[in-house]
Amino acid sequence: MTHTLKVSHDGPVTTLVINRPEVRNALDRETTQALAQALLAFEADEGARVAVLTGAGQAFCAGADLKELAGGVPYEPWAGSEAGPLHRVLDKPVIAAVSGMACAGGLGVALWCDLRIADETAKFAVLSRRWGVPMSDGTTVRLPRIVGMGRALDMMLTARAVDAQEALHMGLVTRVVPVGQAVAAAQALAHSMAAFPQIAMRSDRRSTYAQWDLPEAEAIARENVLSLEARRLEATEGARRFAAGAGRHGQVGEVDEGTRG
């Protein structure tokens, strides 16, 4: 690991902090590789259930370090390369906690996450448009899938910045919180997600991502296959807890340790 990426653990929640505030958390090659390794370590950690990804200081991430690129360091795709941190969706959810700018590749990092919690200072933009640097982080695929083609093209072709409230309106972010509270809100949400039975949550998540590539009937058939393990190991026990009163007054009830995925 490197000092430019901090990783901490709070029970089932892992927090990753891009720690280059002096350059608005732009990702140089060293930090990009460290992020890829840290995400794989989170996925492999049996005790980790949900991750929060954020940036230190006043920005989420300004994308690739263009000064490093200008110096001749090879620029490898973050999504198109198997070694890139955004190459594939992990088997566990990741929440982006966004303060300040999430631009260019930083937008790509936020889009790769399952959910995006933004504070009121957050701004999203494809500012790399100004410098002739193409998107190679999955943005051209993930952005239109999240906000729609028209809004995605507006952002990608004009380089204009979208503030937190507009991002919420277009579905780019999940929720907006007061200034300085994005990380705390994301971590609280992560803990609540970590308390759910994990097999069902992950199988539903896998089905949701997989359906993009399939006709409706095939997608529903895949949903059925993915649900089998949760139905066998979690559903009956969960129904019993509900019937015993765990679901009253909005209370989820205690998570059965035996249901951990």
Number of domains: 2
Beta-strand fraction estimate = 5-15%
Q: Which overall shape is indicated by the principal axes computed on the Cα atoms?
A: globular
In the predicted model, the low-confidence regions spanning at least 5 consecutive residues are 253-261
Estimate percent helicity: 40-55%
Radius of gyration equals 19 Å
CATH topology of the largest domain: 2-enoyl-CoA Hydratase, Chain A, domain 1
Structural class: alpha/beta
Measured between the Cα atoms of the first and last residue, the distance is 27 Å
- CATH class category label of the largest domain: Alpha Beta
**Could you name the CATH homologous superfamily of the largest domain?**
2-enoyl-CoA Hydratase, Chain A, domain 1
Number of strands: 9
